[in-house]
Amino acid sequence: MSKADTPGPAVILLSGGLDSMVTAAIARERGHTLHVLTIDYGQRHVRELESARGIAARLGVTRHVELPLDLRRFGGSALTDDIDVPKTGVDGGDIPVTYVPARNLVFLALTTAFAETAASRDIFIGVNALDYSGYPDCRPEFIASFAETARLGTKQGIEGAPFSIHAPLQHMTKADIARECHRLGLDPAWSWSCYDPTTKGLACGACDSCRLRRKGFAEAGLVDTTPYSKDAPELTE
After folding, report:
1. What are the pLDDT digits (tens) for 86-103?
2. Which of 81, 95, 153, 179 is deepest in the core (most CB within 10 A)?
3. Residue 105: CA count within 13 A, CB half-sphere
4. What does the alpha-carbon distance between residue 8 and residue 118 come to, in Å, rounded to a whole number?
5. At residue 176, what are phi and psi to the nearest 5 degrees?
6. Euclidean distance between CA atoms 18 and 192, whole angstroms
7. Contacts of residue 42, Cβ cutoff 8 Å, sequence gap at least 6
8. Are strands 10-13 and 122-124 parallel, antiparallel or unpaired?
9. pLDDT in tens, 42-69
10. Measured between alpha carbons, how far is 237 from 195 in angstroms, rounded to an integer?
């Protein structure tokens, strides 16, 4: 591969969850050097931030920025406000209360700003539109629309070097993502998905995120090494 063909640096939005970990590993596999951004937005599951730090270290990233942004000041979500996290099963109807208003819109804007200062044209985000909780900012049309917005609203974009927004998990099921995790040699326990950890630091196993994750690993026939509460419900869906 010539120098001209060598992939440049990539900026990855790394939450510390399973999807973002797998996405970062895919970017590394494609030959990119990794610059990762983690947003400390006041989420109640701060365990995820610890996972992001560990993942960044294990993947040997070039730079890891952890940016404080206190979305608790806005509230409006079970992840940033005094609202109970639902634990009765994944509902395919209304957008759940775990939706954080405009989170991916805000986070992608920040990731783009980071990319423009990192001489990067490649932005990776671990959104998924199949086995997910119904968030509008995980849909392909949103990602495509944001890419155009980034082209129009940045110096780099109007000077002819627009950003590519990569969402390699976009059309994968959670079982597919679990298989990718295994193929890439990642330990699932490095990541954290639970919205409401127990006081002992275990994943609850009952919130939407836990249920989707557990179901994905079960369907893939793989072991999820994440420590779950003994009170986690049996998988029935």
Report:
1. 887 766 567 888 888 889
2. 179
3. 11
4. 10
5. -60, -40
6. 6
7. 69, 70, 71, 72, 73, 80
8. parallel
9. 887 789 999 999 999 999 999 999 999 9
10. 19
Bridge-partner residues for 38, per DSSP?
A: 66
**Residues composing the chain:** 237
Tokens of 42: 């006041």
Amino acid in position 229? S
The two tokens of residue 93 are: 């109807």
| Burial of 212 from C-beta contacts in 10 A (0-12 / 13-18 / 19+) | buried
**Placement of tokens 């000077």 in the chain:** 159
CB 44 within 8 A of CB 11: no
What does the block give as tokens for 158? Answer: 């109007």
Q: Which amino acid is at 86?
A: P
125 contacts 119 by C-beta, under 8 angstroms: no
CA pair distance 152, 157, nearest whole angstrom: 6
